[in-house]
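--- STAGE predict ---
source: upstream dedup step, 1 unique chain passed
mode: sequence only
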Amino acid sequence: MFKLKSRKSNAATAAAPQPDELRGRSEEISDPGTFDWQVLWEALKTEEPVDDSSTITQELGLDRERWIRTGYERLSATEFSGTRHGRHVALRVGIVPDLRGKGMNEVQVSAAVAPFRITACDGRLVAEPGALPEVDEVLAKLEPAPNVWRDVVVEGGRDGIRSRRTVTSHAQGYVYDLWLVEQLARELGD
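--- STAGE serialize ---
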């Protein structure tokens, strides 16, 4: 498993892998918060590039793109979807789920699981009481990363696992969220 000590550590920076070194190897990563988003993006790739791809997420296996309307937004959001590791996954960018009008990104993976809820607190992800021990085991492997794990909520249940965060909390936060919801789906099964 790949795990670097800290982004701020000179030793970790010197040892940090280049994006292409981890291409397609996201399952080997135990703590994505130690990587820059570009490295994690490469690690999450499951498909070879195609010349005529119509989506920026084709190499992630999310090869369908469509405009959607959810919640209260006046503008359409974009959904990228497809099958990854045998599960349907949807990445929704720019949704506005409530009247407050904050733009959100969300990632959802189809995997029926026991209900749980995770929130971010001081750069850590914390499961609310009642979560399965496997949820806590996944979270225990993650070092605090205030720039990565901020303003994110992850919920699981019979309809799948969904992460949601404000767009302004981390412009590419959905990359980390994709890793997290897939890791939880692997650990919790369905």
